[in-house]
Amino acid sequence: MNLAALIAASLVVPGQGAQTTRASMRVIVEAQGTVALQPGGQCSSAFGFAHCKVDLAPGVNLMTLVRGGAPEPLTLLRQVTTSQQVPGVDQAGFGVASVHRPEVEQVCAKCHPMDEAKGRAPGDSMLGTECTRCHADVSFRPRQHGPVAQGACLMCHDAASTPQRYAVRWPIQETCFRCHQDIQGQMLRKAYRHGPAAAGRCTTCHDPHGSDNEFWLKKPVFDLCTNCHTEKADGRHVLVGFVYGDTHPLRGRDHPLKPAPFYCSSCHNPHAAQSRFLWQFDATEREQLCETCHRK
Ligand code: HEC
Ligand code: HEC
Ligand code: HEC
Ligand code: HEC
Ligand code: HEC
Ligand code: HEC
Ligand code: HEC
Ligand code: HEC
């Protein structure tokens, strides 16, 4: 067996023990015949290579990869983005055992064009390339964030990053602030900042490629907020006194001031505000907040 064949035979992308913050991962191996990844992997084989995709539960996922009848253990680790920086995972949540390293891309390049970013400017469209075909799950969502709809992947992903290509160009919040200077201004000017936004973790709440929710949120607002503020999930909040009952509606109504639904962020600014309770409308007093919607 020659060296190249030896390397190819042991190829497992991603590597053993790979870490990711994503909910699914592709596993690509060289193998003749059928390949299985258990539990839950979906594999298809073509020309001596198997492409599998598997959904990951948070934490350690112990898998078994079967090729040519021989079972091998494969451990994949899914981390949670909101936690502290995890060793082995960079600031954008990408594991170090990435596909976009020269030694791996070289193998993919036998069948896939891997150099499509070459010679392109950041704003150029990647639509119609293998880049967006391999990444159809982020490139063609029904509702897309502006620059993604334009195919401008390289606006945020750096084709020249090392050791892996396509790292996010700047720390995430800086990447967002390149275009959303209004939010940057608010974060700088206002007296109080919301924990996760102040930590620069914009993608804890927003999906950078788009989603079915407003503002490209990862979940509908109520679910997003109560994911961390679990005690608010019972809907008992903002006590308004015995005359009116003991709680304020928190969703499922219309916003009284604009054509939008009413939810947590109708009263709270998710980024920054002038009060410690992060009230909208720059309110610093409770009454000021109430009266903005409930005019006398
Ligand atoms: C021997 C040829 C071959 C090699 C080598 C190969 N692929 Fe593929 N790949 C294919 C074929 C064939 C398809 C199916 C194309 C289609 O359906 O349009 C495919 C499809 C894909 C897809 C899209 C389908 C999916 O699973 O979502 C991805 C992503 C992909 N390959 C990644 C890779 C990566 C990463 C490597 C290198 C580690 C690689 N491939 C190496 C032949 C290959
Ligand atoms: C042959 C298919 C293929 C092509 C072409 C391809 N990628 Fe990937 N890319 C992958 C696979 C597989 C992964 C691993 C993530 C996964 O499991 O889905 C990946 C990972 C990534 C990641 C996550 C970071 C990382 O390194 O894990 C980014 C960002 C990315 N690709 C951007 C791009 C961009 C931008 C292009 C085009 C200029 C491109 N890719 C071309 C298959 C491909
Ligand atoms: C507005 C900036 C932006 C644009 C434009 C963009 N991305 Fe991303 N992308 C990100 C950020 C930020 C992350 C890291 C997400 C995280 O850490 O939560 C990411 C993550 C990824 C990943 C890792 C998988 C995942 O779902 O997290 C892939 C693959 C990817 N991008 C591919 C692409 C492709 C292909 C395009 C073009 C069609 C593109 N991106 C356009 C900002 C962008
Ligand atoms: C290259 C410029 C660019 C970058 C970088 C960028 N955005 Fe955007 N963003 C836009 C444009 C243009 C729009 C308006 C079109 C649209 O709604 O998608 C937009 C819209 C949005 C919206 C919806 C605004 C609304 O009023 O509906 C959100 C939320 C958003 N971006 C968040 C982010 C986050 C989070 C990041 C960083 C991961 C980011 N953006 C990075 C250009 C950018
Ligand atoms: C805790 C969750 C959370 C975090 C973290 C977060 N956002 Fe938001 N963001 C939201 C919600 C919720 C909305 C919708 C606000 C509303 O209902 O008006 C929003 C709205 C937006 C909008 C569109 C509306 C506007 O005010 O212009 C942009 C752009 C945006 N966010 C960018 C960012 C950027 C950039 C970061 C990182 C610094 C960030 N967000 C961090 C939850 C979050
Ligand atoms: C990723 C977890 C996370 C998410 C999601 C999140 N928050 Fe927070 N929130 C925090 C943390 C951490 C703090 C800071 C806690 C502290 O300092 O007491 C905080 C603080 C707050 C505060 C100020 C609390 C105080 O006692 O001063 C309000 C109000 C708030 N969040 C509302 C929201 C709303 C509304 C949403 C949804 C748009 C949301 N949060 C989503 C983690 C989160
Ligand atoms: C009608 C306006 C309004 C809505 C809607 C609203 N809040 Fe509040 N929130 C307030 C006010 C006012 C306070 C100040 C404390 C108080 O009066 O109860 C507050 C305080 C908070 C605090 C900090 C103090 C505490 O009680 O822990 C958090 C966290 C919070 N809200 C989260 C949420 C979440 C999550 C939602 C959606 C499920 C939400 N809020 C919906 C008005 C609102
Ligand atoms: C962002 C707008 C907004 C703010 C700010 C707001 N409310 Fe409301 N309020 C609503 C909406 C929407 C309803 C539901 C009205 C309906 O169903 O017709 C409501 C209903 C009420 C009700 C009737 C309760 C019920 O069960 O129907 C009371 C009382 C009330 N609010 C008091 C307050 C108080 C006190 C504050 C300040 C702490 C406040 N509101 C802040 C939008 C707001």
- Percent strand: 15-25%
Distance between the termini: 84 Å
Q: What is the number of helical segments per DSSP (H or I, 4+ residues)?
A: 11
Order of helix and strand elements from N to C terminus? HEEEEEEEEHHHHEEHHEHHEEHEH
Number of strands: 14
Proportion of residues in helical segments = 10-25%
Overall residue-averaged pLDDT value: 85
Low-confidence stretches: 1-8, 82-86
Strand order within the widest sheet?
1-3-6-5
User: Which value, in Å, is the CA radius of gyration?
Assistant: 23 Å
What can be said about the biggest beta sheet?
A: 4 strands, antiparallel
Structural class: alpha+beta
Q: Which kinds of small molecule does this entry bind, naming each only once?
A: heme C
Report the principal-axis shape.
Answer: elongated
Compact overview of the structure:
With 296 residues, the protein is an alpha+beta fold. The chain is built from eleven helices and 14 strands.
SSE topology sketch:
Blueprint: H1 3-9, E1 12-13, E2 19-20, E3 24-30, E4 35-38, E5 42-46, E6 49-55, E7 59-67, E8 70-78, H2 102-108, H3 130-134, H4 136-139, H5 146-149, E9 157-158, E10 167-168, H6 172-177, H7 181-189, E11 192-193, H8 195-198, H9 221-228, E12 253-254, E13 261-262, H10 264-267, E14 272-273, H11 286-293
Parallel strand pairs: 2-8
Antiparallel strand pairs: 1-3, 3-6, 4-7, 5-6, 7-8, 9-10, 11-14, 12-13
The protein binds heme C (HEC) (8 copies).
One heme C is lined by residues 145-147, 155-156, 172, 175-176, 178-180, 202-203, 206, 208, 215-216.
